[in-house]
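Reviewer 2 asked us to include a model.

Predict the structure of this chain.
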Amino acid sequence: MEKEKTGRPYWFVPLVAIALIAVVLVGCLSNQTPSGANQTPPNENATIPAGQNATQFVEPKVYSPYYAGLESIVNAELNKTSNNATRGDYLPAAMFNELPAFPKDLYQMQVLFKYYQLGKIRNQTDATKKEIGSEYWKQPEWIPTFSTNGLRIIQNPPLDTYYYGWADYELIGANQMRNKNTGAVTTFNPGVVATVLPNKTIEVKVPRIGVEGYTVYPSDMVIVDAHPDTIFDVYTVLYSGWYVQLYQGVKLNATFPDSGAIEDFQIFPDGTKAVNQTPSEVQKYFNVEFEPDQFALDPSFPVFKGGWTKLIRMRITVNESTPKGKYLIGMDIVPPSKEFNDDMIWKYKTEYRVGGVGIGRPFFRVFVQVV
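Predicted model (structure tokens):
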């Protein structure tokens, strides 16, 4: 039975006041050929690159070891779920209008994927092939950190606080403040809370605007049967961060870290976790392509836009001269090309943000054992 590795998602959601930083950054970017506009979903049946023998394309073996107590953990989690589940009322229903219908067995599938790695992330669900489609992985509840972190951020967003002296300002309603000197009236946006303090100072609390942040799930994968002169695909999903309100332009690049350790209970078949390597040597052994490789992620707030997620196919070619051993291949996020950013700024104006913020390690890591 083939298994997919889940890994632990990594979030990086700095929340700062919105500014036209994206416009400033564009002028500093190098001139590259854009390739991500109007991307179609990855096609797992895409043809093999020219010059490659079709017999060299293989289905990778994703490794996930059994460990003591796993069955009892899974059973305990499954007992909390239902095959007729519905979404709770923890957020306004309108936030999910652009997403597929909520699957009744989502929580059961989530448990099986998380612990047993049952199911392969793909474009569409195919039960006969154990393939999990977008009606599952587009839901925020599919990501384990939604209940532990994401929901809290969305329900209680960070606030910036401002103070206005009573001599110059007065509240004239629940959502309006007047300048006594000029008569100008400020109408507060929804979510802004204004309060008159005991000293008559007006305290105004304004929800911050989430400008960037993203994660992948799954974030780690272990391939244990790679052979020289072969090609294989692995998949993950890139998500816009919780409470992000801008469109984010990203480009995916392959990276070869000098070291890394597999997360949580995951291990190589010999019981080890760590990989140490020389990046300049390792990059000679692998060719890595992403589909799509450049695109804009939609916002996740105030509604989960239809494009707040993106299915990523990572195609890895193992060169014929690759020695046996363990390797680490990563996916980094960098700023897109200048041409792409120009197009996105023209389309989204101040609602566009140039992405490329890192987290100190690749967002997606594939640990490969060549045999």
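Helices lie at 21-26, 70-78, 106-116, 134-137, 145-155, 279-282, 338-348. The CA atoms of residues 212 and 244 lie 6 Å apart. We have added this to the supplementary material.
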